[in-house]
Design a protein that fits this description.
By secondary structure, this protein is an alpha/beta fold. It has two domains: 217 residues, Periplasmic binding protein-like II (D-Maltodextrin-Binding Protein, domain 2, 3-Layer(aba) Sandwich); 230 residues, D-Maltodextrin-Binding Protein, domain 2 (3-Layer(aba) Sandwich), CATH 3.40.190. Strands 5, 8, 9, 10, 11 and 12 form a six-stranded mixed beta sheet that branches. Strands 1-3-2-4 form a four-stranded mixed beta sheet, sandwiched between helices. Helix 2 links the parallel strand 2 and strand 3. Helix 1 runs antiparallel to helix 3 and helix 2 packs antiparallel against helix 14. It starts with a helix and ends with a helix.
């Protein structure tokens, strides 16, 4: 039965190759979009970091097969990681499959029982990783995280991870405290803005929604207009990646947490009755509706893809856009206003004094339980959690790993824009959002239901707040019934 399920999933994924599956680390990738298999062989065995990362226990001619989703952070980091791992493990060759469409490539392989040894594929993708979790096909990593970290004697790998991550359903999906997915990167998401513009105009970043909407009046002043091809245009307050509405999660979840506390988030994550029909949640849904229906959106937003809307924001057509740190790398060659510098603000709150939250983007690493070489895959994962890898990710991807103190270790290697964005954590409370698993027989992917299917209709007035909330309550009821049926 499991093989048949995987065969059906493989067929479905192949048919969806042009759908443009989104990851929290950026849609569309960076560099060549063609699917490739990279075989990296290294004969250099000299020290590549510290002696603590050297391990010569692997046998001769051992091959580690890894599968990597190529998102906004590009490929350079993975090439460097592989080179360093092979140098520290003589006789080991790492064969890497890397592509923005990695799921469509390896799902047919898994359907016939050929599992990669190690995967860097985010669970946020609909279909592939969801199926792996639902089928309980991932290796239990709990004992691994309680083992000692390389280069940090007496410190467990668990102690290196940002607190709270391993306890979340993103990494411990079954609610039993067992960890099946490993943290990769962690960086703030939220309303991205041009800090140079705000400083030049003397504007304060809004801390409440009232202040946010009040900024619109400032934009009537001709001195604030932006020059687009010789034409002076009035700026808008906000835009988003219209046809990829999932980016709005970086605003919605922190806004709900600010209004209703993390209890409101946990109720949504676990499909509880009344989770959406909650006064605090309703207040936030009303704010999203207001943004669109009362004219605060940049003209044409809902028809744009992520690169188009991001390019317009960088040119100055909108003050804010939801995004994350990968934005810097993904749009590195895009035109922009003079002096443009990225920054991320914590999401505004309904009332002054409420806690402000910053949603963290995250990706996951995992090892299939049926992989041929799980022991070497665990060593590859251990090698990942080192200071050298923190620095490499900063150097090659301009990003920050989900390791305590990562920003400080990598500070000399990160761009000023990324450092600006990481400072959002200093102003708001770190949070994650990840849904509890849905039974395998129910073809629902909640981020798609919440954002792609309903958010634009809500913001364009095609759906009322009451309709939005009722539809989400109905979906939660359907999921609860499926969970109950699965348990019987």
């Amino acid at each position: 039965m499991k093989k048949r399920v995987w065969t059906m999933l493989a067929i479905g994924l192949i048919s969806l190759m042009t759908l443009g599956l989104l990851s929290a680390c950026g849609a569309g990738g960076n560099g060549d979009d063609d699917a490739t298999t990279e075989t990296v062989e290294t004969t250099d065995t000299e020290d590549v970091g510290t002696d603590d990362t050297q391990d010569e226990t692997a046998g001769d001619d051992t091959v580690l097969h890894i599968a990597v989703f190529e998102g906004g952070y590009g490929r350079g980091f993975w090439y460097d990681l592989i080179d360093r791992f092979e140098a520290a493990h003589p006789g080991v060759t790492v064969e890497m499959q890397i592509s923005p469409d990695i799921e469509t490539i390896i799902a047919p392989q898994i359907a016939v029982g050929e599992f990669p040894d190690f995967m860097a594929i985010p669970e946020q993708h609909a279909g592939f990783m969801t199926a792996m979790i639902q089928n309980r096909e991932l290796l239990d990593l709990t004992d691994f995280f309680d083992s000692e970290a390389l280069g940090h004697p007496g410190t467990s790998i668990r102690d290196m991870i940002i607190p709270g991550m391993l306890d979340s359903t993103a990494y411990a999906p079954y609610g039993d405290g067992r960890v099946y997915l490993a943290p990769f990167n962690a960086s703030p998401m939220g309303p991205v803005y041009n800090i140079t513009l705000f400083e030049e105009m003397g504007w304060s970043v809004p801390t409440t929604w009232d202040e946010f909407f009040a900024m619109d009046a400032l934009l009537d002043d001709a001195d604030t207009f932006v020059d687009i091809g010789g034409n002076e245009e009035r700026r808008a307050i906000f835009t988003y990646q219209g046809i990829h509405a999932g980016y709005l999660e970086s605003i919605l979840w922190p806004a709900i947490a600010g209004a209703g506390g993390m209890e409101a988030i946990h109720a949504i994550e676990n499909y509880e009755e009344g989770a959406w029909d909650n006064p605090a949640v309703r207040e936030i849904i009303e704010i999203f509706a207001r943004m669109g229906t009362e004219g605060y959106l940049m003209d044409g937003t809902v028809a744009l893809d992520h690169t188009q809307s991001q390019a317009d924001m960088m040119l100055g057509r909108a003050l804010f856009i939801p995004n994350g740190v990968w934005f810097v790398n993904e749009m590195a060659d895009a035109p922009r206003e003079d002096g443009f510098e990225f920054a991320i603000a914590p999401v505004p709150t309904v009332a002054a004094g409420q806690p402000r939250y910053v949603l963290s983007s995250f990706e996951q690493l995992s090892i299939p339980a049926e992989a041929a070489n799980t022991e070497l895959a665990l060593e590859f994962l251990r090698f990942f959690y080192t200071d050298e890898t923190i620095i490499s990710f900063a150097e090659h991807a301009d990003g920050s790993l989900a390791i305590v103190g990562s920003r400080e270790v990598a500070e000399d290697y990160l761009s000023p824009s990324v450092l600006n964005m990481l400072r959002a954590y200093d102003e708001g409370t770190f949070m994650l959002m990840s849904f509890a698993p849905i039974p395998a027989g129910l073809p629902l992917h909640m981020p798609q239901e919440i954002f792609d299917a309903r958010m634009t209709p809500l913001m364009t007035g095609q759906m009322t707040v009451d309709q939005y909330i009722q539809e989400m309550e109905d979906l939660n009821a359907e999921i609860r019934e499926a969970i109950e049926a699965e348990g019987n």
